[in-house]
Amino acid sequence: MAMTETQERESMIREGVAELCKQFPGEYWRELDREQAYPTEFVRRLSEDGWLGALIPEQYGGGGLSESDAAIILEEINHQGCNAGACHAQMYIMGTVLRHGSDEQKQQYLPGIASGDIRLQAFGVTEPDAGSNTLAIRTRAVQQDDGSWVVDGQKIWTSRFFHSDMMLLLARTSEPVEGKPKWWGLSTFLVDLREADGAIEAKEIRTMMNHATCEVFIKNLKLPAEALVGEEGMGFRYILDGMNAERILIAAECVGDGRWFIEKGAAYASEREVFGKKIGSNQGVQFPLARAHAAVEAADLMRRRASELFEAGEPCGAEGNMAKLLASEASWQAANACLDAHGGFGFAEEYDIERKFRETRLYMTAPINNNLVLAFLGQHVLKMPRSY
Ligand SMILES: Cc1cc2nc3c(=O)[nH]c(=O)nc-3n(C[C@H](O)[C@H](O)[C@H](O)COP(=O)(O)OP(=O)(O)OC[C@H]3O[C@@H](n4cnc5c(N)ncnc54)[C@H](O)[C@@H]3O)c2cc1C
To answer: Of 6, 38, 214, 255, which cross-links 202 as Cys (Cβ 3.0–4.6 Å)?
Structure first.
């Protein structure tokens, strides 16, 4: 059967990304993993080849590709055994600037982001005392008489902080006001970390996978008036917009991980012989892989549906959340089936399974915990009473 236009386009993207990824084999990632070091060279090549700037419109030097295309890029990176978590945030953080930033901000930053000269990888939302309750954040930005801002506060889990030139920061600028929605009063700022002049200190948090994530302390940080993105008080809405994109793209990464695990598990199970027969002929080995395959492919369909709605400018909160929920569970299911199929060898570093196993587990917890996805579906889609 002839390929559709979409299939042809996807296949071209996959081939290009796979070609680049093949130059960064398991050995490369294993070594970084041991040192908890950042994949600088991989990210540089992704930028140089235009994959990281794919979503930036052509007028700003980007690829002008769609959300669906971006999803295929990230999916394929993970499918090839690499880890898009090192740089995925640039794709959705940039969207906040693109959708809500001023013309000046777009002119000033987007071309540099597209070329890789400016790294916008850090996203400062989560705080230690607020956790999943973003509206409870306490980082405060106070406007001065000359229009500039002074920021004080603390963030946690700010990933890629040390590998970023800019950070998109969410801070409270106004206290809740009667008559305004509950989410009002938070604002987004584009912080140029190169000009932070000692007002920001960060400390890396070592985690079970290599993720370059940090706690960040902000003291008396002076920002120009132009650092504000969009309208004051509207930041939470802007971040939510970006969060739909984030959930869809993370779901795509999980689909990529899931396919990597299933292909690896099925190949091994078709070769390894124990008791004089291939282990894959045992249903105890075969069925978990087959079941995980079905789950990954179903999650991919939901991811595609969410991308479609996102691109059409339609509400896609439910679909984006469902895609992230289903895909993160499916990749975790695939990870376990693959590990089980490999027996003891699954635990050996050289097979890369234990590394990918740790990496894919994150997505059930971040960027939003699956419990909170279920709460969203229960309350906003099924109209049941709120749990918080
Ligand atoms: C490696 C890593 C990288 C990250 N990168 C970033 C980043 O770059 N930028 C950023 O801003 N954040 C980042 N995060 C933060 C991430 O988004 C949060 O960890 C996540 O939102 C959950 O917040 P929390 O960890 O404080 O958990 P909590 O909010 O404390 O929740 C703890 C547990 O309680 C459950 N829970 C809480 N309330 C409810 C409820 N009402 N109903 C049911 N269950 C509930 C949660 O589901 C969870 O299981 C990162 C986190 C990690 C681990």
So the answer is: 214
Report how far residue 28's alpha carbon sits from residue 34's, in angstroms, rounded to the nearest whole number: 10
Kindly report the pTM of this predicted structure: 0.97
Domain count, the chain: 3
Q: What separation in Å is there between the alpha carbon of 321 and the centre of ligand 1?
A: 15
Residue where one domain finishes, among candidates 234, 255, 277: 234
Which residues, in sequence order, are CB contacts of 316 under 8 Å at separation 6+? 244, 248, 306, 309, 310
Residues with Cβ within 8 Å of 102's Cβ and at least 6 positions away in sequence, in order, are 226
Q: Is residue 386 part of a domain?
A: no
Task: Quote the CA–CA distance of 296 and 293 in Å, as a whole number.
Answer: 5
Regarding whether 252 and 134 lie in a shared domain, the answer is: no
288 and 334 both lie in a single domain: yes
Is any ligand 1 atom within 6 A of the Cβ of residue 157?
yes
Residue with CA at minimum distance from ligand 1 atom 43: 371
CA-based end-to-end distance of the chain: 51
Full residue range of the structural domain in which residue 194 is found:
120-234
Ligand 1 atom closest to Cα of residue 368: 21
Ligand 1 atom 6: residue of nearest CA:
157
387 lines ligand 1 (CB under 6 A): yes
Say if CB 63 and CB 12 are below 8 A apart: no
pLDDT (tens digit per residue) in 264-298: 999 999 999 999 999 999 999 999 999 999 999 99
In tens, the pLDDT along 293-307 reads 999 999 999 999 999
